[in-house]
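Page 42, continued from yesterday. The earlier attempt failed because a stray header line got pasted into the input along with the sequence. Redoing it now with the clean sequence only.
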Amino acid sequence: MMIALFTDFGADDIYVGQLKVALLRHAAAGTTLIDVLHTAPNYDPRAGAHLLAALRGWYLPDTVFLAVVDPGVGGERDAVVLQADTQWFVGPDNGLLSVVAARAARTRTWRITWRPGMLSASFHGRDLFAPMAAWLSLGDMPPDKLNETAGLRVGLGADDLAEVIYVDHYGNALTGLRAGTVPRNARLTIAARDVTYARVFSDAPAGQAFWYENSIGLVEIALSRGCAATQLGVRVGDLVHVTDVSESAP
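This time it went through. C-alpha cells are written below.
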C-alpha cells in the first residue's frame, strides 16, 4: 500500500520525519511512503488544492494521500477523510481537498471524530491525520472514529484558477490553469508581461519567457535557460490573464 505525503512542512525542517514515524507506527510493514511535495505554498490551501488535484492522477488507485496545509490547525475547521473515486485523502476541511472532490466522479466524506490521548494543538498532521491515514492504508475504515457526512464544508469548486500556485526551484511558475483549456495561440499576461506559447524549453531562444503545458497538464510560465520568477518578478498568487489572440484579431 502507498501513502503519499503532500504538505507545506518544508523538506528540511523537523516535521516530515515526525509525520513518517507516526505513520509507520500504525501502518503495515513494508508500506511505501511517497513524498509528493513538502513545499506546497505556506498557509495557502487554495493554491495547494489545485496543485494536489493536478498531481493525484499520477498515483495508483487506492493510494492514501495525507494532505496537510493547515493554517487553521487547532481552530474550528474539521478533520476529514475523503474518498475520491478510488483514492483516499486525509486532511483538514479548509478547501485543500475540495478541488479533488469537485472533479471526482464519485465521492464520500467522513468527519474524523476520534481524538488520540495525546493531541498537540499545533500538529494534527502527526497526531490525528497520520494515524487515520495509516489505518486507511490497511483497508480499515474504523466506524467508531468517523462520522459520514454529506460532503466537505469548505468547497472551492472544480473550476481552474488563473493564478500562480507554485514556483519550483528553477523559478518556473505553475498556474492553476489546466493546459487543455487554453488555446495554444493564447497570450498570457502576468506581472505586466506578455508571454506566448512554446512546446518546450528547447523551442524558445535563451532568455525568452514563454508558457507551455507541463508534465502534469498545467499551464506553466518559464524562461528558457533562466529563472522566470526572478526575471518576471512572479510569485504565488499572481493573477494570470488569458487572451485568445484569434478572438482579439480584427
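Notes: The longest strand covers residues 161-167.
Reminder to self: strip header lines before submitting.
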